Amino acid sequence: MPLKLLADENIDHRIVKELRDESFDVISIRERYGGISDQKVLRLSVKFHSILITEDRDFGEWIFAYQEKAVGVIYLRYNNEELEEIIHALKHVLAEKRHSLYGKFVVITPKKIRLRDIPYAV
């Protein structure tokens, strides 16, 4: 079963392109569902059984404080000058961890990767 990804509206189009070029199945919120709420983004992630890639820290609050269900979340933290580094780190995590990313909240910076279990994972 291929790894499915849902790119939040704030994900740079170059990241989406790089992932698609690597043959990842990526649904872009910006391309198909622009302007929807964070809760609807999480619901789409569950509906499509996709790991959400976002730059919005609020998803950590939705999942850990409000106990919203999620399949998996990858939260990217970087500066614009670090775009190439974050793309490389993201592709590395996706290649190495693949399906073990389901049920995880992952924080990726250009220098560090942290994984945490999601208590209400779908």
Q: Could you give a short description of this structure?
A:
This protein is α/β, with parallel strands linked by helices. Helices cover 37% and strands 21% of the residues. β5 and β6 (113-117) form a beta hairpin.
Number of domains: 1
Architecture, according to CATH?
3-Layer(aba) Sandwich
Spatial arrangement of strands, main beta sheet: 2-1-3-4-5-6
CATH classification, class level? Alpha Beta
Class by alpha and beta content: alpha/beta
The parts where pLDDT drops under 50 for at least 5 residues are none
Count all strands and give the number.
Answer: 6
- Name the helix and strand elements from N-terminus to C-terminus, one letter apiece: EHEHHEHEHEE
Largest sheet features: 6 strands, mixed
Q: Provide a count of the helices.
A: 5
Dominant shape: globular
Rg result: 13 Å
Q: What percent strand? A: 15-25%
> What's the overall average pLDDT, rounded?
95
* Fraction of helical residues: 25-40%
Distance separating the two termini: 16 Å
The name of the CATH topology is Rossmann fold
Essential attributes:
122 residues; alpha/beta; Rossmann fold; six-stranded mixed β-sheet; 5 helices; 37% helix
